[in-house]
Write a structure and sequence with these properties.
It is built from two helices and 18 strands. By secondary structure, the protein is mainly beta. The protein starts with 7 loop residues before the first helix and ends with a strand. The radius of gyration is 29 Å and the shape is globular. The chain has a five-stranded mixed sheet, with no helix packed on it. The protein has a five-stranded mixed sheet with strand order 11-18-17-13-15, with no helix packed on it. Strands 1-3-7-5 form a four-stranded antiparallel sheet, with no helix packed on it. The longest helix has 30 residues.
């Protein structure tokens, strides 16, 4: 009768491997626990956050230049350095003006979108290249570009691109008033809520922006461009319809 004798060498090796695996697992688990428990370890290094990563211009005329400023905040523990901004379309510009972001500070990034003849619903992205750790958000803008042949569904704006022409010598501390005619084509009151006004370059001269059914109103804006410089800025409203439609009026200042 044969007697079974366990191989103690193999059993010992397997036991050591099992012990090593258990110790390694406990070490990894402890590292994860420490990382989750210690917020300083989670946010170590520069981190970039954006409060609103997507901005909707809404209804926009063709051949217009619409602008919106995003604010990038450094929520990390070290200074953030932005090396460049890259857009996914030649119709979108994102000049880099501030490349260094101290801890806790924010810097503006102005996105300029040229609607050209990009009819219909459009979406454009701007990527941020930096030394930040973790997820770095992309800046996104959307718009619905309506050709001149399509009648407005809610409001008719005239002129579609209000333009102010100035000579290089013209100066005005108070700025220049530009009036825009807006006609309500619906049978209900439409309220315009300004959600993006690029002050101090553009300001609204009045607060009551309700337009009655089939009513036409002349709304005053005040433009304050830098002396002798061309300027493009836009004002975006949220309308009071059920869809909360956005409407953007692009302004242009030309130097003669």
């Amino acid at each position: 009768m044969r007697t079974f004798r366990p191989n103690t060498a193999v059993a010992g090796t397997q036991s050591r491997h099992l012990t090593t695996a258990i110790i390694l697992s406990l070490f990894i688990l402890s590292e994860i626990t420490i990382s989750l428990a210690d917020p300083r370890q989670r946010t170590s290094g520069p981190r970039i956050s954006v409060r609103d990563e997507v901005f909707d211009f809404g209804l926009l005329p063709p051949e217009a230049l619409a602008t919106h400023t995003f604010w990038l905040k450094n929520t990390g523990t070290a200074r953030a350095e932005i090396s460049r901004l890259a857009t996914n379309c030649g119709c979108t510009q994102a000049p880099l003006t501030d490349s260094l972001v101290p801890v806790g500070d924010s810097v503006p990034v102005q996105i300029m979108f040229g609607s050209r003849t990009n009819y219909g619903q459009v979406e454009k992205f701007t990527r941020i290249f930096s030394n930040a750790v973790g997820r770095v958000p992309a800046l996104s803008i959307t718009a619905k570009v309506l050709p001149d042949s399509v009648p407005p569904g809610l409001l008719a704006v005239t002129p579609k691109i209000p333009t102010l022409e100035l000579s290089p010598e013209e100066r005005s501390e108070a700025g220049w008033e530009v009036r825009v005619t807006i006609k309500n084509t619906t049978g209900v009151v439409i309220n315009l809520k300004p959600i993006d006004v690029p002050e101090p370059f553009v300001t609204l001269a009045e607060d009551d922006l309700a337009i009655g059914p089939k009513e036409t109103r002349h709304i005053a804006f005040r433009l304050r461009p830098d002396p002798g410089k061309a300027m493009n800025r836009s004002v975006t409203f949220e309308l009071s319809d059920a869809a909360k439609t956005h409407l953007t009026i692009p302004f242009a200042v030309a130097v003669k």
